[in-house]
Design brief:
By secondary structure, this protein is α/β, with parallel strands linked by helices. Helices cover 47% and strands 9% of the residues. It has 2 domains: 9-323, Divalent-metal-dependent TIM barrel enzymes (TIM Barrel), CATH 3.20.20.150; 326-386. It has 15 helices and 10 strands.
């Protein structure tokens, strides 16, 4: 019998080399799993049914690799992709791991570091395009401060803008078919990171030379760390036509960046997230940026990857049931199907509508007294998620 929750290529499920390749190291403990090569990770992802694999430059090619080593690694990686059929939809640059980036990359006070960051990024943009990437993600993990005495925030914003303008110019000059997606995070590893939310990035993007080339890559955990509603963030990005990529994982509110398996903690939040993506027909990758528990061996990593994709498809099915449930849809309709009472049609401004509104008599007490039945609606939603409806 066919498993309804088996991943297929059209689902566009992707993982980063750094996700399934995470050996279980954390700030308090050494690795617990063997470090798998990029080729081994490609075959692992093919085994569990993923569509694609994404990478930081340093995930694929060690930062100190020789030209000969680089050529061999890229050749072997391409061979693994050809053997498995996996795609590379997205690439990114590690501008946070090396000690040279300890005070930022694009926003560093040291002009030499800023120049090195541009060089490193251009080189990996070239490789990403060579491997088929259409989206390039920017996460400014070190773009921030521990103390505001160390850096002028206006200077940092200007440097960030200069870097993004330089790199969009480079992509246009090379005639690459590539867009950028910026990723927000409030803190960690810095005390404070610039552009801490998706909304902040959406505002910043509009100040760039080529804003049409730059969108966002919101991540569940990064918005939840701040106690924010992730679905609202992606709705804003979608409305702005800037949802170029998305990072799926899970996260308890107010904790450190946990990178939990998607759908494993915040069940209702993940339900509404998947429902939104499917309702608007989001066509991009569903990228899982998370890690298996440190308790797991390599077999457990495969369980983690399969579980991420399976959970997405389960939530997708729950969303379909919610949309087709007659009682739920009747309640949704009832919330806005109210008597007009002579109310003029609302929309764009006109003097006639403004005058009609100013002259209209509202029954304020009746407006406040009306019950909206959201308790019942929410309970029915929970029952759909829990599988009893």
């Amino acid at each position: 019998m066919t498993d309804a929750y088996e991943p297929r290529p059209e689902h566009k499920f992707t993982f980063g080399l750094w996700t399934v390749g995470n050996p279980g190291r954390d700030p308090f403990g050494e690795p617990v799993r063997p470090a798998l090569s990029p080729v081994e990770l490609v075959h692992l992802l093919a085994e569990v049914g993923a569509y694609g694999v994404n990478f930081h430059d340093d995930d694929l090619i060690p930062i100190d690799a020789s030209p000969a080593d680089r050529e061999r690694i890229v050749r072997d990686f391409k061979k693994a992709l050809a053997e498995t059929g996996l795609k590379v939809p997205m690439a990114t640059t590690n501008l946070f791991g090396d000690p040279s980036f300890k005070d930022g990359a694009f926003t560093s006070n040291d002009a030499r570091v800023r120049a090195y960051a541009l060089q490193k990024t251009m080189r990996n943009i070239d490789l990403g395009v060579e491997l088929g990437a259409k989206v390039y993600v920017f996460w400014g993990g070190r773009e921030g401060v521990e103390t505001d005495a160390s850096k002028d925030p206006l200077a940092a914003i200007h440097r960030y803008r200069d870097a993004m303008n330089f790199l969009t110019g480079y992509v246009k000059d090379q005639k690459y078919d590539l867009v950028f997606a910026m990723e927000a995070k409030p803190n960690e590893p810095r005390h404070d990171i610039y552009m801490p939310t998706t909304g902040a990035l959406l505002a910043f993007i509009e100040t760039l030379d080529h804003p049409e080339m730059v969108g966002v890559n919101p991540e569940v955990a990064h918005e939840h760390m701040s106690g924010l509603n992730f679905m609202h963030a992606i709705a804003q990005a979608w409305d702005a036509k800037k949802l170029f990529h998305i990072d799926l994982n899970d996260q308890a509110f107010g904790r450190y960046d946990q990178d939990l398996r998607f759908g494993s903690h915040s069940l209702k939040s993940c339900f509404f997230l998947v429902k939104f993506l499917e309702d608007v027909s989001y066509a991009g990758s569903r990228h899982f940026d998370s890690h298996a528990y440190r308790t797991e061996d390599v077999a457990g990593v495969k369980d983690f990857a399969r579980g991420s994709m399976r959970s997405y498809l389960i939530y997708k099915e729950k969303g379909r049931r919610w949309n087709e449930d007659k009682e739920i849809q009747a309640l949704v309709k009832e919330a806005s199907a109210v008597p007009r009472d002579g109310l003029p049609e609302l929309g764009g401004y006109s003097r006639a509508t403004a005058n009609a509104l100013k002259g209209h008599t509202f029954d304020r007490k009746a407006l406040g007294a009306r019950g909206l039945k959201y308790e019942r609606l929410d309970q029915l939603t929970v029952e759909v998620i829990l599988g009893v409806r």
